[in-house]
Amino acid sequence: MPNQGINMAANGAAGASAGAWQQNPAEIDKREIMAIARAVVEKRSYVVKYIDIYNALRDIVEDNDEFHELECKLYEDIVESRIENVYRFGGKCDDSDCDVVIVTPGELSEKQLKIIEELIELYTFRLYDGDEDERSELALTLHNLIKMWFSDCRYASSPAEAVYELAKKYMLEVEEEDNRDQWYVGDIYYNVEGVDTRIVKSTGYCTNCVDFYVDAYENIVAKCTKWHFEGDVD
User: Fold this and answer.
1) In which band, very low, low, confident or very high, does the pLDDT at 195 lie, cut at 50, 70 and 90?
2) Strands 186-192 and 174-178
3) CA-CA distance, 233 to 228, in Å (whole number)?
4) Cα atoms in the Cβ-side hemisphere of radius 13 Å centred on 138
């Protein structure tokens, strides 16, 4: 079972505040980062449950005693906001199984964290008038909210970007294969240590920012960037 010894801020962000203290990257075990990354890749979402990270770590660490020791450290590091841009919120049950963990490409503001906290409180309200299918919409709602905050008309974020930034920050090995042409259009592929799915950063031409009523006679073609996992289709 996931760690139940720490149950801080059961209905809110545990230490998840903008500018919260983070631990030196060298003090975070790389396997913790691999487990978080694998959970995000598996769910294809910025939003996972702690149980997803727990299971991913279980696949990484074979020795039972070593696993339990590292899992306790991992949970504490998440709860105490020691891992940059990884935020934990209490779920609708009383242990860590259903804690909501959000992994973002950059730091969230206090205002953004408050919005997330209020949404989670609504869906974990014990007298909530809805079924489990409606509750499951929470992850998708939060995912799209994060995507909106980190994207614009020329830049499409995704959980792939969050995994890339996490890996770079915490010194996982990242191998780069640059397949762009002489105009820097095309794909860059990233192989992240401990993750079996490649990350792709694609650059191409688009007209996403154009208001055709206003910009009809302007140069309407621009370069746009999109993050995704290899093999994923929009």
Assistant:
1) very high
2) antiparallel
3) 9
4) 28
